[in-house]
Amino acid sequence: MILARVVGTVVSSQKEQSMEGLRFMVVEPVDVNGKPSGPHAVAIDAVGSGPGEYVLYATGSSARQTQVTDKKPCDAVIMAIVDQWEIGGDVKYRKGEGK
Q1: Domain encompassing residue 25
Q2: How many domains does the chain have?
């Protein structure tokens, strides 16, 4: 799983039939301090996330193991919205507080 921030959306009017109705989100991986740490990716949203939220996403074959993405041609899926994370007892982020 990769910690990331949702930074945008992708709209596609033409797509594989099995992908109809799925939302595509642009995610930016972040480090444990919430700083950008890698290239952006497009991920299927399986949990109803939105821009600005921190999420966990998976890539590769793991991306096809949610109910939403089962047997679909996707390589990345958002499968959790992060409420909080802490490192060594120090809260790095808590949803709603911006920390």
Answers
A1: 2-94
A2: 1
Q: Which residues touch 79 (CB under 8 Å, ≥6 apart)? A: 1, 46, 47, 56, 57, 58, 66
Residues of the chain under the 50 pLDDT cut? none
**Contact status, residue 25 vs residue 19, Cβ threshold 8 Å:** no
Cα–chain-centroid distance for residue 34? 14
Q: What is the pTM of this model?
A: 0.90
In a domain? residue 99: no
Provide the token pair at 89.
């007892």
Predicted local confidence at residue 64, as pLDDT: 87
CATH number of 48's domain = 2.40.50.220
DSSP state of 30: B
